[in-house]
Amino acid sequence: MDDVDSDVGAMIVQNIEVFQAAFEYAETRMNDLLGKKVIEIFEAQQKQIKGDGDEPEELGDIISIASPAWRIPSDSDATPEHKIWLTFEGTGDDEKIWLSEFAGVQGAGIVLKLSTVLKKKQFREMMKNNFELQDGFRSLGMTIDPGVGFVLPIKFDRELLAQGFADEDLTEALEPLAAGLRHIFEANELTTALLQAIFAIEQAQSISRASVVAAPISSQR
User: Fold this and answer.
1) Is residue 153 within 8 Å of residue 179, measured between CB atoms?
2) I want to staple 97 with a disulfide (CB 3.0 to 4.6 A). Which of 24, 90, 103, 165 is the partner?
3) H or E stretch including 184?
């Protein structure tokens, strides 16, 4: 333990009532204000695109959304599945999303992840020479994650977050999240190109598997 740790420990003990009150406030109001507003933003976007999504009650629940155009064709009445979908996630060490990720503490943050049905090897194969897709998603501010798909970091202004809590209205503070959702769903040509590339990879591998199965039969003739 260094001097900084000792100083922090002493400060916490000396101000334990303040820290406890602040922590309890953040825990309660985060879900009341922050969680509900995030869910409201997703529900508004889902309604606008007539899309699919979860029914989260708080930030600890899975929050995802998908366009009807991203659905896998099916005659079933079951919950629709998709070739691609978008999720809301935190990048902190904790599984539970907390206020620190909205505030950008110690490099933690909030991201929108556009995932695909492809496995890692398939995804790498699809992206290997597809420079138009790479450039397209980068133009949206997204990075490429071979294990996921594409990631859009969402940056929030800490002062606006603080003011939002004071005013009990986080609409302005969370506008970057709403804007990020809009940008992705408005990029129809780009997501259509991604869907076509996914289909091409799946079709090529399906043909390859069929050839392997058919080979022994051919060799017996």
Assistant:
1) no
2) 90
3) helix 175-186
Greatest CA span in the chain, whole angstroms? 87
pLDDT single digits (tens) 99-133? 889 989 888 899 999 999 999 999 999 998 899 99
Type of residue found at 109:
G
Query: Where does residue 193 rank: exposed (0-12), middle (13-18), buried (19+ CB within 10 A)?
Result: middle
Alpha-carbon distance of 42 to 185, in angstroms, equals 12
Nearest to 117 by CA among 195, 41, 54: 195
CA 178, 179, 181, 182 torsion: positive or negative?
positive
Q: Token pair of 159, please?
A: 């002062």
pTM tops 0.85, yes or no: no
DSSP 48-82: HHT-EE---SSTTS--EEE-GGGBPP-S--SPP-B
- Express each pLDDT in 130-157 by its tens digit: 999 999 999 999 999 887 799 999 999 9
* Residues 44, 65: Cα–Cα separation, whole Å: 11
Task: Tell me whether residue 135 is exposed, middle or buried, using C-beta atoms within 10 angstroms of its C-beta: 0 to 12, 13 to 18, 19 or more.
Answer: exposed
